[in-house]
Specification:
It is a single chain. The protein is an alpha+beta fold. Helices cover 69% and strands 6% of the residues. The chain has a four-stranded antiparallel β-sheet. A two-stranded parallel sheet has the order 1-6. α7 runs antiparallel to α10. About 9% of the residues have low confidence.
Length: 410
């Protein structure tokens, strides 16, 4: 068995256990700090919405892509004579196409100028530059539908978990974990400045599903551990939930690592190799969401569930019974220890008494010496040990026989 497998076995059997539930304040503080940073990033920098949400003009042209293509095309757009194009986005699609996204342009005056600048840079006719205009109303419709989809998803999650586990508190804890993951993902987007595109929405909905899966795995083990807990005095609800977290800990780590590795490769490819495009937006949402989902299922969802359950009257009575049983066991152990140590104490006491009987005290020696030293009659001092020896010797000597007077020799 490998070392990791051995650790997993010891966690599953309860030989090794970490108190995740008992340290829930620590995890709450960490999550509060992360959420606070995310909210500050959203308020300070905001989200960089793509052209699909805020509207704009999209141009595509076929050309051979070189390392200088993006920079030269951006310079050509700035020199087109159309104002406010410094924030235009230029990216490549494959090795033979360039995509330019700008703010909303006037179709009669500004669009022809931009098309001409792109065509001159590539060396083709302006009519060969494809373009499309996206209105802001269309972007607002996408945003509205995305929010509706998110709301429907959360409602369905609450219903499904409540029906499956037959526990409304599990639904509440799972929703809190999902909202936690959602805020962290959006905050990271605002912090790093990635563009929010439809691919981002796909990634967010995907990671919410992943986070929900991980939470359901932990809750299923919690339900198994607390099935008959009301009629038992072995452990409290929090202790049973903590055991469940330890039992699925290795599985959650393995699942997260295996899922994150390919997503990290996609993120590296999209951010550092391709530079622009929907790949990095999707990969960032998946990467942040998967890590946050694994964290929230262990450190947020389960501690919140245990905290809510411990407030129920039945769970309070259970906790009282568990404490009473453990107090009785502790008292019995102390009694056994006291009984085991009693014979040793009696033996030590007996040996001390014998020593005191056979040896004269210092006070007696000083009294005898002072009597002789004052010139008085010399008095022999007989100690307890001498008296006992004298009596034993007298008992050994033959004693006179007291016969009747008639039998005595005349």
């Amino acid at each position: 068995m490998s070392k990791l497998g051995e650790i997993g076995h010891r966690l599953y059997t309860g030989e090794v256990s970490y108190d995740f539930i008992g340290h829930r304040r620590r995890w709450y503080i960490v999550s509060a700090i992360l959420i606070g940073v995310s909210i500050i990033a959203l308020a300070w920098r905001g989200l960089d919405f793509g052209i699909e949400f805020k509207g704009g003009a999209d141009f595509k042209v076929a050309t051979q892509v070189t390392p200088q293509t993006v920079d030269s095309m951006r310079d050509a757009i700035r020199n087109s004579g159309v104002p406010d194009l410094d924030e235009a986005t230029v990216n490549t699609i494959g090795n033979n196409q360039v995509r330019v996204q700008t703010r909303t342009l006037d179709p009669t005056e500004e669009v022809p100028k931009v098309r001409a600048a792109i065509a001159d840079e590539v060396g083709i006719n302006p009519d060969q530059v494809a373009y499309s205009l996206i209105g802001a109303s269309w972007g607002s419709q996408i945003t509205e539908r995305a929010l509706i989809a998110l709301g429907v998803f959360l409602v369905l999650v609450a219903l499904v978990i409540g029906i499956y586990f037959r526990d409304a508190k599990m639904s509440v804890a799972a929703l809190i974990a999902l909202v936690h993951d959602l805020i962290l993902t959006i905050g990271i987007y605002a912090l790093v400045g990635f563009t929010v595109t439809p691919a981002t929405l796909i990634g967010v909905l995907t990671i919410l599903g992943y986070s929900l899966y991980d939470t359901v795995v932990v809750f299923d083990k919690v339900r198994e551990n607390v099935r008959d807990i009301k009629s038992s005095t072995t452990r409290t609800y929090s202790e049973a939930a903590n055991l469940a977290v330890n039992q699925v800990l290795v599985r959650s780590i393995n699942t997260t690592v295996i899922g994150v590795l390919p997503v990290a490769a996609l993120l590296f490819t999209g951010a550092f190799i391709l530079g622009e495009g929907p790949l990095k937006d999707l990969a960032l949402a998946l990467f942040v969401g998967m890590v946050a989902g694994a964290y929230s299922s262990i450190f947020i969802a389960t501690p919140i569930l245990a905290q809510m359950k411990e407030r129920e009257p039945d769970m309070k009575k259970l906790a009282a019974r568990v404490r009473a049983r453990r107090a009785k066991e502790s008292q019995k152990e102390r009694v056994v220890e006291t009984t085991a140590s009693a014979p040793v104490a009696e033996a030590e006491l007996g040996s001390t008494s014998a020593t005191k009987e056979t040896e004269p005290s210092n006070a007696e020696l000083e009294e005898a010496g002072s009597t002789v030293g004052n010139g008085a009659k010399k008095v022999g001092v007989t100690f307890k040990s001498d008296v006992r020896s004298h009596r034993e010797g007298s008992a050994k000597r033959p004693q006179p026989q007291n016969k009747p007077r008639s039998q005595r020799k005349k």
